[in-house]
Amino acid sequence: MGMTIAEKILAAHAGKARVVPGELITAKVDLVLGNDITAPVAIKEFERLGVETVFDRDRIALVPDHFVPNKDIKAAEQARLMREFARKHQITHYFEVGQMGIEHCLLPEQGLVAPGELIIGADSHTCTYGALGAFATGVGSTDMAAAMATGELWFKVPASMKFIFHGEPKPWVGGKDLILHIIGDIGVDGATYMAMEFAGEGIAALSMDGRFTMCNMAIEAGGKAGIIAPDAKTIAYVKERVDREYEIYESDKDAAYALVKEYDLATIEPLVAFPHKPENTRPISQVGHVPIDQAVIGSCTNGRMEDLRIAAKILEGRKVDPRVRLIVIPGTQAIYLEAMEEGLIKTFIEAGGVVSTPTCGPCLGGYMGILAAGERCVSTTNRNFVGRMGHPQSEVYLANPAVAAASAIAGRLASPEEILG
Amino acid sequence: MRGKAWKFRDDVNTDEIIPARYLNTSDPKELARHCMEDIDPQFMEKMSPGDIIVAGKNFGCGSSREHAPVAIKAAGVSCVIAESFARIFYRNAVNIGLPIMEAKEGASKIREGDIIRVEPEEGKIINETTGEEYQVAPFPPFMQAIIAQGGLINYVRARVGESR
């Protein structure tokens, strides 16, 4: 019996020839990530361990991005705790305001993730890096502390599920719609404990940005990882950013899967996930009349160049409905700069939107776009849970950047075609 | 462990257990004050220390925030029983020493207000109100070792000590 890409990566990091689903292993990790919410807890636990140093100062990434630039005094204290730890242990990959970006946009861009690597992050969207053919999974702060001390962690080898997309995507359909389609199909616990492998010509046709979006939301189906075998696009992306050796793995033809699902892209249109679960998906043609108060374009899910270009294409020369607040958040400083050079920032501002420094802010109801009771937001983020963006009686509708931009102009949920005519 | 059961639905996420607006601190006492606030604003007024949360499928889904099991533990909840748990929450609960039990039958049959006794070593959940008893699978040995050491930090401490 062959192995899946996920099993191969885990076996290699556990020093074993093969592993099987359900097996408990101890594996060496290539990178340990934490942010300004999770790292402070991890740092306190790390200090309880009584070890003097971290396992490798080059293999820890600390990114203040959730409540930074500091939103209040308590957030400032947490950010300081992380900054002081980074200085004390001379952490190479600490990103201060000015360098920082949203962690899951930033790390691939900085070349900190390569194919075949094993990455853990104290953030559930760490699964984003599977787009590069790495095994990346979210953990809690205590796991992060243990890994910072030892460079290893225990894992239960997950069974794998395979999702194959056939055909060509329809206009305005992107990675966001493909992953929402899966979540709508299998539910928010449909892939619990599983590795979700995405394959087929529909995935091959996606840009790297679209693939990051897909793998990012694997956790929204309960997945332990989302993963896409590297191809020429992956290698071209990595070549510009990574100068260390890495391994390319792919699944064997006779690898075992707990489930294989095949989808025809000809049947998938842009989707909107209605409150309060990402599985509540509806095609944009069937959303009905849903007025909105706010539109957010950004986040670790959809804050990359391709996302901003798509939004700008729709907003160019048009105006946001006066009742709607449009908030655009480029994922990193480099993305911000590139968007500025391409004239996208000008487009957003002229359309009546605001453009923020990189931050997770509104996605988790932190700051920079909190909702009042009864307000509705269309958002390119990843969760529409009760109270996720503010008041427990507010509502979040998840969509791709094209739908979010079109909705901002229409003042209600709308398809790009309605706006472009 | 013995206490009154408080029932929750399927897919309780960590934003509902502890909303992100309170994550500018990691102080367990402060987190506990807002435990379950966005799913049941009165929870902390109603519950007594030792009480037990009983939930449906996929408890603790969403964000990886360890603040969620920390808030539940600091609130005085003695055990969480659910039909199933989300992966990261499960791991975090083990790591910080919050007792959790996956009990498909028990979680669906227990009603709010029932008095529940849990005997973790024997993998037994007893509903004192109805007299029903549910058997659950004990933790795998690997996790038992972590729990026996009082959580992952002590476990790693012991291992780091051995290798020096």
Q: Return residue spans of chain B where pLDDT drops below 50 for at least 5 consecutive residues.
A: none
Counting copies of identical and different chains, the oligomeric state is: heterodimer
Estimate the global geometry of chain A from the Cα principal axes.
globular
Roughly how many Å is the radius of gyration of chain B? 16 Å
What is the tally of beta strands of chain B?
A: 7
Helix percent of chain A reads 25-40%
- End-to-end separation of chain A: 53 Å
Quickly count the helices of chain B: 8
Proportion of residues in helical segments of chain B: 25-40%
- Computed over alpha carbons, the radius of gyration of chain A is 20 Å
Give a brief rundown of this model.
The complex is a heterodimer of chains A (421) and B (164). By secondary structure, chain A is of the alpha/beta class. Chain A has 15 helices and 18 strands.
Notable traits:
heterodimer, A: 421 residues, alpha/beta, 5-stranded parallel sheet, 15 helices, globular, B: 164 residues, 7-stranded mixed sheet, 8 helices, 7 strands
Please explain how this structure is put together:
The complex is a heterodimer of chains A (421) and B (164). In chain A, helix 2 (39-49) crosses helix 5 (141-150) and helix 11 crosses helix 13 (344-350). The longest helix of chain A is centred in the N-terminal third of the chain and has 16 residues, at 73-88. Chain A is of the alpha/beta class. Chain A is built from 15 helices and 18 strands. In chain A, helix 6 (175-186) links the parallel strand 8 (160-166) and strand 9. In chain B, strands 4-3-2-1-5-6-7 form a 7-stranded mixed beta sheet. Chain B has helices at 14-17, 28-33, 43-46, 67-74, 87-96, 104-109, 141-148, 152-162, and strands spanning 2-7, 52-55, 79-82, 100-102, 115-119, 124-127, 133-135. Chain B has 8 helices and 7 strands; from the N terminus they run βαααβαβαβαβββαα. The mean pLDDT of chain B is 92. Helix content of chain B is 35%, strand content 18%. Chains A and B meet through helix 2, helix 3 and helix 5 of A and helix 5 and helix 8 of B.
